[in-house]
Design goal:
Length: 190
């Protein structure tokens, strides 16, 4: 299947507390250091409020705007407000469509555990949670803080969760060698 889309997408999935954010926080600077422009989509189960009630942007959002773009010399933020009160979760595809792909070489996705995309599982056996890779064929590697017996002898790549160099190297290799279907799976999935 040919899915020539704007930017390769690689997910990082795992249960809460497994270390996804900590790992990405260490890996992103290494990808930047080799010239890769990294976008990130992070899913959260919590309501977010990155604005202060005393600010004009907050006041204008709550006046009823459906979208607000706050622009400064250093950054801009785009707010989407969902006034229908349906507690709807935006899809990964909706989030990807909002990015400026002309400024990116890769999009990393944290969360969206059940979305159809190529993923690295982040797993800590000490947390007592099950692995995801046994039920998700889109997981191509497991970043773990201890070797997993279930990975021994299999075709699943095992990564050291505490070795950001190794994970960054894996991502660079994946970018160079993955098929278009693997790189662009969220755009191709129907």
């Amino acid at each position: 299947m040919q899915c020539n889309q704007p930017t390769p997408v690689l997910g990082f999935a795992g249960f809460s507390g497994s270390g996804k954010t900590t790992l990405l926080e260490a890996v992103i600077p290494q990808l930047n250091a080799v010239g890769l422009r990294v976008g990130l989509v992070k899913h959260s189960h919590h309501d977010i409020e990155p604005d202060s009630p005393r600010k004009d942007s907050y006041r204008l959002r709550y006046a009823g705007s459906d979208q607000l773009l706050l622009a400064t010399a250093k950054r801009h933020m785009l707010f989407f407000e969902y006034h229908d009160n349906l507690d709807r979760e935006p899809s990964l595809q909706e989030c990807l469509n909002q990015l400026d792909h002309s400024r990116l070489d890769i999009v990393l996705v944290e969360g969206f555990r059940d979305a159809v995309l190529t993923k690295v599982e982040v797993h800590r056996p000490a947390h007592g949670k099950p692995t995801l890779f046994s039920h998700d064929s889109n997981i191509i590697a497991v970043a773990c803080d201890k070797p997993l017996a279930s990975l021994t002898g299999g075709n699943m790549t095992s990564l050291d969760l505490n070795n950001a160099d190794e994970v960054a190297s894996f991502i660079r290799h994946w970018l160079s060698h993955a098929t278009d279907t693997e790189k662009y799976l969220p755009y191709c999935a129907k």
